[in-house]
Amino acid sequence: MKPVMESVRLKEGDGEEFTCDEEPHMLPPETGYGYLALTLGHHLDQDKRDLEIVRKLGWGGYSNVWLATPHKYATTSSPLVFFDLITHSRKDYRSKYVAVKVMTVNATAGAVYGHMNEVKSLRLVTSKNPDHPGYKHCVTVEDLFIEKGKYGPHYCLVTQVHGRHMDALQSDLQDHHFSVSATKRIIKQTLLALDYLHTECKLIHGDLKPANILYSPSYQDDAIARHIEDSPSSSYEPRLEPDLSPDPIITVRSQPLPNFGLQEDMSNINICLVDYGETASAEQEHTHPSQPTLLRAPEVVVGYPWSTAVDIWSIGGLVFEFLIGNPFFALYETDSVSLEDSLLRRMIEHIGPFPPHLLEKGTRRDEYFDAEGTLIRVKEFRPQSIEDCLKIYNILDSADIAPAAAFIRRCLTMDPEKRPTAKELLEDEWLKDA
User: Fold this and answer.
1) Nearest-CA neighbor of 198 among 91, 289, 364, 314?
2) Strand spans (E) along 142-223
3) Which of the residues in the chain have pLDDT under 50?
4) CB atoms < 10 A from the CB of 86, how many?
5) Is the CB of residue 213 less than 8 Å from the CB of residue 189?
6) Which domains does the chain have, with CATH numbers?
7) Predicted structure pTM score
């Protein structure tokens, strides 16, 4: 999720800014936003579902997420059609509480006209093969409908309620990193989810990062009710800004649910992989930029055709980050060196040289490499093995360093054609006791 505040310019060309309490829900779609402005007690789709907003769980660049209570059953027996896309609904809701991801007007339009894949991918993942062991570790949709707001239509995606993401769980820990056993459990379940996406759904996730891996407890309705009673949902003080809104600006405060039932050693953790906004077909080749910079695969950086192997590269970076509490690649930026330049430098320093064919066929290789395959703007290299990178933090026991490094090295194979699949990694010795 996004940082808790965002600044917006009051007038075009004006230096004055307004700092929003959270997402800028008061701004229209033409500014790049277009959120549905909800308040506590608001009822979504009142005629059919009557979902009452009881808490805000968080927000991102294309949506906000709410805890809601259904007051009616979703009894739609035939599909509802909107802009030639079919909405999806179960016969009823199984819990007193559900999570509702409300997409912005712009994101909804992107889903409708095929520019954003989240809705299409979510429906595919939900329906493809519930018997696959990775299915339970992928977010699925309980219900899908359209809510009309001030600026236009908003897709509303109803899912089970999940807990906090891995970034938040790490931040809660005193030393800000997971144990070896907890890391193995999280990674194994994430690989199960990827195997389902890659082999059954033929999808590349494309946005693996700690914030998209959620703790998935077996929530009990009464536990949520007690927590809301003990820690009531709230809103910020109303803001007056006539240049942005004729009415007082009321923003609901993000209040994620706690980690109900999670044991201190995280031995019972179950995860759910979320956010299909960057998914791509695994049956096509892609060359467009994708993935978070710190977890971006080499083929993506240089514009070499990429597929499911990019998710495996991200797994390698996640293992290091979970074990140590810091990203594997320590990036920097100067007037002459970009983040991508420093990322390529770190890849070469810690993993090794680029395979020649990646550079030969990379559509963006000339942005970074000269004719001899040498980085243009980086002249100094300090090679350091994965083992040494793990060792310098003095976190892992010496016996844990080599096995962890071996697993990370498999994931961070420079040649995507030689990188193991999720299914192959699930058989790795390092995960045998997960």
Assistant:
1) 314
2) 143-149, 152-159, 203-204, 213-215
3) 1-3, 74-87, 90-91
4) 11
5) no
6) 6-161+220-230 (3.30.200.20), 166-217+260-431 (1.10.510.10)
7) 0.90
